[in-house]
Amino acid sequence: MTLSAKKTCGWPGADPLMIEYHDKEWGVPVYDDKKIFEFLILEGMQAGLSWKTILHKRENFRKAFDDFDPEKVVRYDAAKKKKLLADAGIIRNRLKIDAAISNAKVFLQLQDQHKGFHKFIWQFTGGKPIVNRWKILKQLPATSRESDEMSHALKEKGFKFVGSTVCYAHMQAAGMVNDHLVTCYRHSEIFKSGIQRRS
Length: 199
Fold this sequence. Notes:
By secondary structure, the chain is mainly α. It has helices spanning 16-24, 33-46, 51-55, 58-64, 70-73, 78-85, 94-113, 117-121, 145-157, 164-173, 185-193, and strands at residues 130-131, 177-178, 197-198. The chain has a single domain (3-198), classed as Hypothetical protein, domain 2 (Endonuclease III, domain 1). Strands 2-1-3 form a three-stranded parallel beta sheet. The radius of gyration is 17 Å and the shape is globular.
């Protein structure tokens, strides 16, 4: 069976980038701090926009934000901010750009305190992905108890643009929850690839 013939979640539609993201990244557990930071920046930028919009600008964001290196982002000055605000390849929102920079500072602090940021963020699902068993797309939630708790904790630490909806999107992207439909071939593939926790 070819990849295109396999049953999927459906939400990527016919967009090649969305299909690739669904098939290779979405829902796969991420424990790499740099990758987690990348998702946090992109999801913060997504607030009020579609993921498709952000995904199509991802490589532009990668170049603009020094390959999502928090050690570099935290040192951005007024000149760099001005350059980012003039970059038509990314989301030119002053508040979101400021948040990405200030979030880098908190990210590095938590990374140091917990010997890895992933150890801090994964505590909200008990260190293991939650496996959901949705049958249709409209069952997928926008938030959860875990994303509420994550949002509260991140805001308390000083993060910005981390409402519960943004946090749940992060949980989906970073594989903290497996929200592939049970009819999607990726649900079982991801489930079989590691230890999971059922919700």
